[in-house]
Amino acid sequence: MPLGLKVPKIGSASSSTVSSTATSAPVSSNTDDIDEVDDQGQSILMGIISQLRPGMDLSRITFPTFILERKSMLERITNQLQQPDIVLEAHATADPVQRFLLVVKWYLSGWHIAPKAVKKPLNPVLGEHFTAYWDLPNGQKAFYISEQTCHHPPKSSYFYMIPESHIRVDGTAIPKSRFLGNSTAAIMDGVSILKFLDIKDSEGAPETYTLTQPNMYARGILFGKLKLEMGDHMIVTCPVTGMSADIEFITKGFISGTYDAIKGTVKKDNEALYEISGKWNEKMHIKDLKTKKTSLFLDTTVAVPLAPKVRPMEEQGDFESRKLWHKVVTALGERDHEAATDEKFKIENYQRELAKKRVEDDVEFHPKLFKTVSNYDPSDKNQVEFVIYKNISEDADPQTQINEILSIAPILPGQEFTEEFNIPAYEKHKSETTATATTSAADPVPSPTV
Fold it and tell me: Where is the composition biased (Low complexity) (predicted)?
């Protein structure tokens, strides 16, 4: 192992022990489902909002803790990965059109996994990271690694893989908040890239899907009832098969319409094959445009999401999401917003100190786990900016891939950090490709931010 991590072999006795102990500290009753914007809260929000203008960027605005979800954005991204059975079925499906439909179904299956109240996830600090894994029903494991790779604008980069089924996802979420009057918007830039590594095109490249996100709107922040809406378009494309889907998340009109509606079309080489409609948090139906037959596509009301497993708190590093925000999350769970605000301020103030030190020392921040894509083109909206630093061979056997993943960062209980973990990702990547790695790049100073 390049990083010297202790890697339990999948399927070994240590692996089964691991899965039974993969729990984190318990949290109080689910306050994420409680709308806590009472008269006092509305007054606080009004005080903040009175200083804003429509269209203003909200990324540098500090909002009160009563509208915060009890998880970091890095962890919230895993909501989209909690129906692995669908993506596994997609990978196992031979027909490319049906395979594409299952990919669309999989991507639609995660949006309903969210707090019932209007809550925003905690903004990750620069260098914050979160890892998790899943014990899948088919006996395989899935792995997730994420890191906050930029702070202004915020960029959350992530990697997900099911090695034994040859499924890989790379992505970066770039939420851009805007004030719109009686609403705020989270414009969700960035893409996810899904690959089926063992399904090759004529040139030997893996079958690749590009997936974009709909935007999110919090309505009623000045008057009316607070309501979270999804809006605009979710686009899924697979260039090698010519398949594409454009799903519109339709926001409710001022007078008419309904909440949570979607409508979209699935095409092959610009020929419409299917229409999808319904509600993204209830039932969705699909209509075959050739046969005119309509059938149930997805019913989220009976879905059973498979939540990720996380290493125990005592094994986590200071910049891992659950440990970093533990005191804030605990206070939120107890609805002690004064304590939550105090703890949140301590974290944010420390980031300012680290940022100031970087300026004084004339050094740049570099992620530890992700590297910038060498040929990244900002104008190409179908390209990710960051990928995991380690070159995980697409054609290697699954156990080799698992070992490579587990050497990046601790994911399973029992794994330990090493000194090499603190080396910036681009240096570790260089050491892999050149044999002249410099250990002098290691820096004992904690990960910086802001």
Answer: 12-29, 433-442
Distances (CA, A) of 33 to 36, 68, 112, 227, 367: 9, 11, 13, 12, 34
Where is 232: in which H helix or E strand?
strand 227-238
- pLDDT for 220 equals 83
Residue 250 CA to residue 214 CA, distance in Å, equals 10
Pair 193, 170: CB distance under 8 Å: yes
Residue 109's pLDDT is what? 98
Beta strands (DSSP E) in 355-428 are 370-372, 386-388
344: enclosing H helix or E strand: helix 337-361
Would residue 2 count as lying in a domain? Answer: no
Q: What 3-state class would DSSP assign to 309?
A: strand
Q: CB–CB of 340/331 below 8 Å? A: yes
Residue 199 lies in a domain: yes
Number of domains in the chain: 1
Stated as kind and residue range, the H or E segment containing 100 is helix 96-108
> What's the burial of 283, exposed, middle or buried (CB within 10 Å: 0-12/13-18/19+)?
middle
Q: Record the pTM.
A: 0.86
Residue 429 lies in a domain: no
What residue type is assigned to position 8 of the chain? P
Residue 314 token pair: 């005592």
For residue 229, the enclosing domain spans 13-349
For helices 326-333 and 337-361, angle between their N-to-C axes, nearest 10 degrees: 160
Whether residue 386 is contained in a domain is answered as no
Quote the CA–CA distance of 161 and 402 in Å, as a whole number.
9
* pLDDT tens digits for range 268-299: 999 999 999 999 999 999 999 999 999 999 99
Low-confidence ranges of the chain (pLDDT < 50): 1-28, 38, 40, 435-450
Residue with tokens 């094994």: 315
CATH number of the domain where residue 51 is located: 2.40.160.120
pLDDT digits (tens, 9 = 90+) for 217-234: 988 877 778 889 999 999
Q: Confirm if 384 and 398 have CB atoms less than 8 A apart.
A: no
What is residue 209's three-state secondary structure?
Answer: strand
